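=== Per-residue structure ===
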Amino acid sequence: MRFFKQQTEIGPAQLRQGMRYLFYDGVCSQVMGVLGGGAFLVAFALELHASNLLIGFLAAIGPASQMLQIPSIYFVERLGNRKALVVLPAFVGRLAWLFIPFIPFLLPESWWSGSLLFLIVFYFGISATAGCAFNSWMRDLIPQEDFGGFFGRRLSVASGVGAAVTLLAGWLVNPLLEFSGNPFFPYSLFFLIAGLAGLLGVRFLNLVPEPVPEVHSRESFFKILAEPLVSKPFRKLLGFTLIWSFAANMAGAFFGVYLLSRLGMSMGVVISLSVLSQLVNVLFYRIWGKLADAWSNRSVLMISGQLFMFATLVWPFTTFPEKYILTIPLLVLIHVLTGVSTAGVILSTGNLAMKNAPRGKATAFLATNALFNGAAATLAPIVGGLMADILSASEFVVGFSFTKSLKEGGSVIFTALNLRGLDFVFILAALIGFYGLHRLAYVVEPQARLEKISMETVMSETRKSLSSISNIAGLRKLAYFPYYLVVARHRNGNGNGHGDGSS
């Protein structure tokens, strides 16, 4: 461990430099994630003749690997050097992306699917053990009052770069296919770049200082594991995490499937919508980060969570029962709302867990939170998939009819609602998610304002951010509409212009 020295004191200049290296690592990790996952990994797996079952397993490996953070608590508590426990597993795990590109070129066809599954399991399994130590490291390194702002800026910059890389790679697929004449070449090239970017990120991580962790009396491993469950405030957070993660992943796992299979969208459209969502992320990570520091992560999560579940409820209305004139506008609305909401959800859930983890004991608390989150995220897509298969032949229709009692006779039928297959999954997920937000009301956030943030405050911060990046009047007015109408209606009804956005 002498190569990963800990420091008893970290000065302001060194802290700023370390936070800068964390920014660089965030960008590298994002590039690795967008090039090594999503539509590119699915397309590569299909070219390897992977079955639908195998593709389902590939989607579940990431969340399932979070459960490995529990045994990694033992190493963090016993060895104490969190930096070593982050850098070494990250380095070894990311080496998998230097082997995955060559699967179809070096191995017999009968080994392709199995080798891909093994290497993805290896990557997520090794990397997950680093997550436990990383959370504890960041908990002690970053000042608590800067959590929201710093991680908001980090996620914003990383998401911006990731969006640009995703769009560029998406448009390069066909030219690379024509150039090489090989169906594997574009994806192998992307995976190779992903691996190199990931290893560069490890280099930046190694330059971030680590403070010496607070020393506590030696306790048994099982007592350390039980402590988060004994803590009543943290149990409330775990209850919310379990419900929310299940709902979000039950719906989110099938957004791409819905676009490709139900709506028959091309890969170009799917990637373009994904990039739109990421670009909105770039702006709103900063906005939510400022609001979380000024108000509370819980208030941010309440508002952003409601937006996410509202966007989920809109999916069934993109068909009536097939594509129609409002399908594309609704898809744009969904992806904008998803970009806005996921920025707040990702930022505030992580910060809320960190703030509820006692200083010096963050390892067990954050790993337990990751365990609950991972368990729910692993089970949710399976339940959603089974539900969609069972109800695939079922249909629920609500319609209105108008009959003309003239010579020509006949009637006109208007379909108000048509639900099939995945539509039922989205609605159930939204209902579970709204219940999870109800449970969030019982979660306590240390050192946070008790007042609930209003939607007017959110929109005010949004207007400031938009005005700082553009002087185009039309763009700025996006921050005013349709909220102005909501506020006006609220004032007319109650005589009070401050609507509570968290209710």
The beta strands are 395-403, 411-420. The chain has three domains: 10-213, 229-444, 454-503.
